[in-house]
Structure formats: structure tokens, C-alpha cells
Amino acid sequence: MKATATSTSAPPLAPGGAPLLGHVVPLLRHPLAFMDSLRRHGPVVRIMLGRIPVFVVTDAGLTHEMLTARAASFGKGGRLIEALSRFAGNGLATLADGDLHRTQRRLVQPMFSRAFIAGRGDTMIEVARSVVDGWAADEPRELHDDMQELTLSVFLAALLGTEPPEATRRRIQRVLPDVMAGTIRATILPPWLGSVPTPAQRRQRTSFTELRDAIRDLIDEHRRPARDTGLLDLLLDARDPDTGQPMSRRQLEDEVITFVTTNGQASTATVLWALHEIGRDPAVRDRIVAELDQVAPGRPLVGSDLGSLTYTRQVVHEAMRLYGPAWLLTRTVTAPAQLGGFDLPRGATVVFSPYILHRDPVVYPAPATFDPDRWSPERARSIPRTAFQPFGGGARQCVGEPFAWSEMVIILAETTRRWRMVPDPAVIPRPVPRVTIHPDRLVMTPSGTGR
Ligand code: HEM
């Protein structure tokens, strides 16, 4: 997988750039096709955002190397991180590498451990089921809002350790689209163009304040639940092992905002794509339902069943492969560095993209085909580990990964068991790359039972 050049040199320039704007136009117009096309030009390719060179790593081995063994030269940073920190402040995902990140990661890690998440499985399932049960039969639904409601409800249930207050959930859900809306534009546009004040930017700034107010109230109003402690209780109890100090109030807010926004993006997108693919292929749905009937015959699903839902997990796996869901992540070169034999100057932004890696036809034959059996225990063995990196790698790998798997499997299982989701043939969802890749619209009708 790892590619090397014979001598050190500047990475090749991608074709199709314009004099003043560079590759901004193809990146804004056809971002996914443009990114996918870069693989043809080499393992590291130079593109221009205006006059600023940006280096895109298209090779899986080199991406992994950059995130792990060479991480000291490739710091977390770059334009995406600047754009995200406008609302997430110093949350775990936007903190620069260093002591504060290491301390925060140590404090936060236990709340996303497999054991802790497994202990919240029953509550997460109950909340997902009550949302799905509330849908009316035979009425078409715009599933984007539904899935955002589901992922947010399930996350808040785990965060609080109990069913979240409906008003709080609504308040957060209302502002999330505006919070995320301008992030990719702020990443791609040259700074002089991105700083022009527009009504959309003003709306976005208001939404940042509203989200922070909602999270502040959520923390203030939280009471430790009787049954299970939530993730938030762990955060409140966390003490820096060196100083014995709790997290500052501002840091706590930044962390919760980070979790709510990351969860709402990536997990929502993956579940939407999975439902779209299940709707196109009834055989996939039948196999999920058969598995659920075998694992939990004649009874509701419980948390301890999740580990046995092998096929349902394969469906989630394949949805994450095919649609990313992150297509543009960034690092900053902290000292003059080489990657794959190419010279990269200090201060440059490096882009890496699970989307590009997951569509490599050498590793994934017929890469555009949705095939959950790629991930059957026998076939998955032939896929190199670095070829599937939806959660990144190294010290900055997604801390929420165990939570994300449980959440997505729960939502898919509960939706599919309760309903047969019938796609609207007039609405063909198109991928829209925001921070993650969302379908522009997904309209499906819950019909009868999934059985
Ligand atoms: C399908 C679901 C998800 C995907 C594909 C995903 C993907 C990623 C990726 C690729 C990174 C690394 C970014 C980088 O290296 O620059 C990341 C980091 C992170 N993710 Fe996720 N994520 C998902 C779900 C979640 C959830 C559910 C949470 C929390 C509730 C979460 C919280 C975080 C945090 C806090 C970080 C920063 C970790 C650090 O820098 O130490 N993610 N995620």
C-alpha cells in the first residue's frame, strides 16, 4: 500500500487549477469527484486554494504513517480545525497537540470505553425505540431530521444517563444545521473571500451563541440519575491526575459541544446512507431482521445483544466505507518534512481523506457497490488495516468510536425491526459534502412492520 517516490521533490500539481482561485472551483462544485480523481496523480498531490498550496495524501499507508509514526511533524491544525474551533473552542477535537490535549484525552477516554458504553446500552436502546415507535405508519418522512433527532436523543441519553428532556433536545437540534453550515466553506475559501460578512455568517454566529447557551443550561440543570450515571457525571467527577483539579467550566462546555456536533454529523450521515442502501436492496433488510429474530427471539433487543449483531454491524461498516463519512481532514506541517519521498514545507496544510482511501479499486473491487459482505469475517481478512480509516489514527483517533458503533447499530436495528422503510422512487439522494457526507434528501415511508 505504501507508495514512495525515487527522489525528494515537490508533489505534482493537480490539473484543472485557475490562475487566481486555484482549485477552489472544482472543490466547491464537484468536491467528491475532484478528491477521488486526485488518486490518479500520485500518493501526495498539490492543489491550490487561491495562491495557497495544500497537499493531499491519497495513499492509505502514507496517511497512516502521517497520523502515527510521523505524527510529530504533522500537527493537528490547518483550516478545518480553525473553522471548527469557532464554535467548539478548545474541545478535544480542536485542541492543538500537546499537554492540554493529552490531559483532556486522559480525562475523557474512560467515558467512551467499551465497558462504560455497554453499561448504557439498555438506556440508549429504549430511547431509540421510543422515537422510532412514535412515527406514523404509511406517511413519508424526511429522514434527515429524524436521524438527527435519533442520534442526538441516543447521545443525550448516554450523556445524562437517563431520557433527555424533550425541550433541550429540540433546542440543540434546531441550531445544529446553522452551526455546521459554513464550516467547509470557511475551510476551502481563500481567507480574503471567506471573511466577507454575509447574512449566512451572521446567522451562524448567532447559532454558535445559542448552542453554547443550550449546553450551559443542560449542564446546570443536570441531576445525577438514580439508575445509571451518565457520561456527563464522569466528566464532572474527572480530576487531573497531576493537579487533582476538575475540568474548568469553559473546558467542560467545549467538550460537550464537541461531542454533540461530532456525533450529530458523522453518525447521522452513516445511518442515513445505510437506510438508503437497505431501501434499495430488500435482501439486506431481510438479513438484518432474521439476525435480530435469531439474537432476540420474541423479545426486545437489550444492550448485551449488540455484540451478536454481526451482519447489522457489517451494514454499518460498509456504509462508513462507501460514504466516508469524513472526506476532508487536515494537519499542519510543524517542521520541514518528507512524506512518500516528497518535500513538504513547514506551515503547509496537509489534507487526508477516508473518502479517497475507501474507494481505492485495488483494495475494494467495484468500489461504488454497496456490499456488506466485504466485511464478513472471511473476506474482511484480505483488506489491509490501513485501507479502512473512518476514525482517523494515532493519538488523535476518534475517541467516540466505541460509542459510534453502538449508537449506529442500535438505530439501524430498532428502525429495521419496527418498520419496513420504503424509499420514495422520485427522490434520489445525492451526496452533499459538508464536514461529513450527507445525502441531500432521503424520503422513506415507514410501512407495516420490519418482520
Ligand atoms: C460514524 C461516526 C464517527 C466518525 C466516522 C468519526 C470520525 C472521526 C475522525 C476521522 C476523527 C479524527 C479527526 C482527525 O484526526 O483530525 C475523529 C475525532 C474525534 N471524534 Fe469522531 N467520529 C464519529 C463519531 C464520533 C462520536 C459519536 C463522538 C462523540 C460523541 C466523536 C468524538 C470525537 C472527538 C472528541 C474527536 C477528537 C479526538 C482527539 O483529537 O483526541 N466522534 N472522529
UniProtKB/TrEMBL annotation:
Keywords: Heme, Iron, Metal-binding, Monooxygenase, Oxidoreductase. Its cofactor is heme. The keyword Membrane does not apply. Heme binds at C398. PROSITE patterns: CYTOCHROME_P450 (PS00086). GO terms for molecular function: heme binding; iron ion binding; monooxygenase activity; oxidoreductase activity, acting on paired donors, with incorporation or reduction of molecular oxygen. It comes from the Bacteria. Pfam families: p450. PANTHER family: CYTOCHROME P450, CYTOCHROME P450 12A4, MITOCHONDRIAL-RELATED. Belongs to the cytochrome P450 family. This is Cytochrome P450. It comes from Umezawaea endophytica. The lineage of its organism: Bacteria, Bacillati, Actinomycetota, Actinomycetes, Pseudonocardiales.
